[in-house]
Design the sequence.
């Protein structure tokens, strides 16, 4: 966002508040963010480098111990799989939403937005019921003869990827829809008049122009997936921890606060770094407007 | 749009899109038939009809207590986030633009930083000062998570109110506060209310921070659900899930009605 664009977003003309009254109105916001957001995070970072003594050993343990390095890799790989699944599932739907009559588009939009505002626990529980031994997926697979007996689906990494993709899909579809809708129809018509067949219009006009949406949706899904807790905790195997479930285990069972703080520090610094690098593409304000 | 000639390619594409839509919707609606069947497993067609699971939910003291706690926390969060968010947004929209980039960065912070990180940090801090497992603790934490949504809703609304309306009121002798209360606030009230609705549902459904801040006795509804799903997928969960989905639908409808009223 340019400096001019940003100031237009926050300011309108007319009589301005004095600096003092503006500060007074902002005070509660800064106090609560400072006390309930910045301070706890800062405290964790301090613990991660100061306990048991000033050291980087806690961070070294995160990367060098093969058990924990494997958790980091599994977390990254799961987030990549979830992101790819969301692109593959979400792109056609977002494209479809730009090409259909508005009444139908509204129905599709409700299908996409309603999950966004319904509980993650409800959606995770639903997948637990669907994937359990006597669940709908297993009975379905046996009914059409693909498998003989029930498969172990629940408490596997595949269950985690499927359910996380389901939870995060709206975060992919909304930015994609925004990008696709902003492509003027004339571009497609021009390509068509000049004799381009449909697949070439799609590959050479629609796809390149929708890339910003693909990038911003993918980042949003990827960054959120890295810190996911509920879904891996309920649907994953205890032998295949992800970073958030490992943090929970370290705090609740092992009581190793400095190491848990270093895990949280690694995750937070990595996510914040990526978010800062791509802050222009992410456009959180626009996503809020869309939802 | 003119209807494209039907060919195998577009037929396959439509089939794929409807399959994805089914993938999105089925896990959400599947709990509804499950919540009213007599069997403990999901069967098609559903066998029998019973409201037993709903009765069990409303009859269980622990579930009711968790629900009441979550309702209290969500209501207080909605109020606190709306007041703090509206005041801050008003200061940014009508102010001189100092602190704008700091404000923006702090606003996006709670969206970017993984909830597990905030949850663990708050667990540590609140434990020491006795806020863990208290209504105050839950409300403070949920307010931080809900504030960005309230501010973005309010920024869009306040930006559209002509500042000369307030200037006119003030030139007639109204104080800045009266001008806001009597002129601007009524104009943006639908947006304040829809921001509050979103803050309510964010708090009511919030699982991660609640997971760490819940004590043994003070458990929010999401935390109770987590324990139940983790230990033994009881048939009471689909009934609660159905009620939660209905609540989401009601809140989205409410926000939609408020939004269309705000446009008039």
Sequence:
């Amino acid at each position: 966002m340019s400096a001019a664009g940003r100031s237009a977003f926050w300011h309108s003309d007319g009589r301005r508040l004095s600096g003092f009254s503006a500060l007074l109105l902002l005070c509660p916001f800064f106090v609560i963010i400072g006390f309930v957001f910045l301070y706890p995070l800062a405290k964790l970072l301090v613990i991660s480098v100061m306990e048991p003594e000033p050291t980087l050993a806690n961070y070294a343990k995160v990367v060098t111990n093969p058990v924990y390095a494997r958790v980091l890799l599994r977390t990254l790989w799961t987030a990549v799989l979830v992101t790819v699944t969301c692109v593959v599932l979400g792109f056609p739907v977002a494209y479809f939403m730009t090409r259909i009559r508005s009444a139908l588009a509204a129905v599709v939009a409700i299908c996409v937005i309603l999950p966004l505002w319904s509980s993650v626990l409800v959606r995770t529980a639903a997948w637990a019921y669907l994937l359990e031994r006597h669940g709908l997926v297993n009975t379905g697979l046996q009914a059409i003869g693909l498998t003989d007996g029930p498969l172990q689906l629940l408490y596997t990494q595949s269950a985690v990827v499927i359910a996380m993709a389901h939870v995060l899909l709206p975060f992919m579809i909304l930015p994609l829809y925004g990008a696709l809708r902003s492509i003027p129809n004339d571009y497609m018509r021009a390509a068509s008049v000049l004799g381009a067949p449909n697949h070439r219009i799609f590959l050479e006009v629609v796809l390149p122009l929708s890339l910003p949406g693909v990038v911003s949706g993918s980042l949003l899904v990827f960054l959120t997936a890295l810190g996911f807790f509920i879904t891996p905790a309920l649907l994953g195997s205890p032998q295949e921890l992800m970073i958030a479930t490992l943090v929970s285990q370290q705090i609740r069972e092992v009581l190793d606060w400095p190491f848990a703080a270093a895990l949280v520090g690694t995750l937070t610094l990595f996510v914040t770094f990526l978010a800062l690098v791509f802050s222009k593409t992410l456009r959180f304000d626009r996503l809020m407007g869309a939802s | 749009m003119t209807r494209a000639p039907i060919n195998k390619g577009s037929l396959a594409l439509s089939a794929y899109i409807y399959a994805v839509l089914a993938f999105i919707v089925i896990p959400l609606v599947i709990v509804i038939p499950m919540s009213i069947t007599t069997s403990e497993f999901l069967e098609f067609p559903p066998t029998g009809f019973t409201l037993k699971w709903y009765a069990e939910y409303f009859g269980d003291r622990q579930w009711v207590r968790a629900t009441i706690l979550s309702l209290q926390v969500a209501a207080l969060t909605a109020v606190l986030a709306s007041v703090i968010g509206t005041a801050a947004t008003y200061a940014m929209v009508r102010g001189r633009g100092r602190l704008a980039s700091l404000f923006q960065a702090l606003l996006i912070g709670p969206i970017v930083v993984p909830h597990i990180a905030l949850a663990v940090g708050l667990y540590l801090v609140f434990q020491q000062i006795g806020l863990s497992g208290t209504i105050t603790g839950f409300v403070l934490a949920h307010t931080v998570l809900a504030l960005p949504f309230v501010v973005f809703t309010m920024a869009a609304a306040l930006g559209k109110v002509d500042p000369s309306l307030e200037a006119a009121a003030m030139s007639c002798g109204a104080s800045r506060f009266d001008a806001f209360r009597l002129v601007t606030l009524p104009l943006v009230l639908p947006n304040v209310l829809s921001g509050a609705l979103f803050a309510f549902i964010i708090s009511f459904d919030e699982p991660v921070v609640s997971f760490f801040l819940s004590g043994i006795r003070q458990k929010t509804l999401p935390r109770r659900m987590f324990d139940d799903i983790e230990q033994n997928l009881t048939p009471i969960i689909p009934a609660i899930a159905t009620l939660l989905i209905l609540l989401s639908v009601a809140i989205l409808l409410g926000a939609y009605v408020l939004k269309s009223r705000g446009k008039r």
Remarks:
- Chain B has a mean pLDDT of 88.
